[in-house]
């Protein structure tokens, strides 16, 4: 990681806007479902507010008209995240790149299903999942593995931006487990963060103190949105 003693990096972790699977209570995971109309509106509203947040973080008055050069936007490769990222990129006139380590948690055989369908088909595994533990035998990516994968991607990307800020656009479970890992906690057993609402974000800043990151904001956004599965 960039030497946190000399450079403090701001990282914003932005969850994508709403999809029809969110509305229907279906597990998304790696299913490449697009934003719906509400999700596109949420992305635009969030991008408008994020532009102000980024301007404040960078100190636009000192940098002048070219302040956006300092921003970098990196997205999960999934379409719902890329479309959300593009709403901000269009405002800042910067490109969106993608990183496979930012993809959503792989929910294996449960992707596309509702909670009731999962409960009916796999009652024992569902009961384990509802406790926050990792279900077995259904190819669901373990929480700890998600946290490790996502946090490693964030650290690697943060190394490339200096003071940043770095905007990462991703997914609810991946952001929650990844942030848990960045804060030095075990994602398999620590449940201190609730999931982000659609089109809301977290902000972390690198620190010279362990675990190397400080949580500055959680579930910030342009307007209230329902917390959907």
Automatic annotation (TrEMBL):
Pfam families: His_Phos_1. Gene3D superfamilies: Phosphoglycerate mutase-like. Transmembrane segments: none annotated. One of its GO terms (molecular function) is phosphatase activity. GO terms for cellular component: cytoplasm. This is Fructose 1,6-bisphosphatase. PANTHER family: BROAD-SPECIFICITY PHOSPHATASE YOR283W-RELATED, GLUCOSYL-3-PHOSPHOGLYCERATE PHOSPHATASE. The active site is at 16 (tele-phosphohistidine intermediate), 104 (proton donor/acceptor). It comes from the Bacteria. Substrate binds at residues 15-22, 80. Coiled coil: none annotated.
């Amino acid at each position: 990681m960039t030497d946190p003693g000399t450079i403090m990096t701001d990282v914003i972790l932005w969850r994508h806007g709403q999809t029809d699977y969110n509305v229907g209570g279906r597990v998304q995971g790696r299913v490449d479902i697009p934003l719906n109309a509400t999700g596109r509106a949420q992305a635009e509203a969030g991008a408008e507010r994020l532009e102000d947040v980024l301007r404040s973080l960078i100190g636009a008055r000192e940098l002048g008209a070219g302040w956006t050069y300092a921003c970098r936007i990196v997205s999960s490769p999934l379409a719902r995240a890329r479309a959300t990222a593009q709403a901000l990129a269009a405002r800042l006139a910067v490109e969106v790149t993608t990183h496979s380590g930012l993809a959503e948690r792989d929910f294996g055989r449960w992707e596309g299903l509702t909670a009731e369908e999962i409960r009916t088909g796999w009652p024992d595994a569902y009961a384990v999942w509802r406790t926050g533990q990792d279900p077995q035998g259904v190819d669901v990516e373990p929480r700890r593995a998600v946290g490790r994968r996502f946090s490693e991607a964030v650290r690697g990307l943060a190394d490339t931006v200096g003071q940043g800020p770095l905007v990462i656009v991703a997914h609810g479970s991946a952001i929650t487990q990844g942030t848990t890992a960045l804060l030095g906690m075990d994602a398999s057993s620590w449940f201190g963060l609730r999931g982000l609402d659609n089109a809301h974000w977290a902000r972390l800043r690198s620190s010279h103190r362990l675990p190397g990151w400080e949580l500055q904001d959680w579930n910030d956004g342009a307007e209230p949105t329902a917390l959907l599965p």
